[in-house]
Design brief:
The protein is built from 3 helices and no strands. It is mainly alpha-helical. Helix 1 packs across helix 2 and helix 2 runs antiparallel to helix 3.
């Protein structure tokens, strides 16, 4: 994924479907595509809250939480809901 490419909710849900069907490369792809999205959001908010030194820790904790709870995600719901 290039920096100018935006990942869509449907693309992420498709990867999750593939992961649930045993596609091992889909998991790596999911993490590779989620990480820049998380990084952008976390850096924005960490800077705003004056805790930028914790940005990488927050990103890693977020990825770990996604890993641990991915099996509970309802595929019919939006994944990127930021509202």
């Amino acid at each position: 994924m290039t920096k100018n490419t935006q990942i869509t909710d449907e693309q992420l849900r498709s990867l999750i479907r593939q992961i649930r069907c045993g596609e091992q490369t889909a998991y790596k792809t999911l993490l590779n595509q989620l990480t820049p999205v998380l990084r952008r959001l976390v850096v924005i908010y960490a800077t705003r809250w004056n805790v930028r030194e914790y940005a990488e820790d927050i990103i890693q904790e977020s990825l770990l939480a996604i890993h641990l709870k991915l099996h509970t995600y309802d595929i019919n719901l939006p994944f990127l809901s930021l509202g």
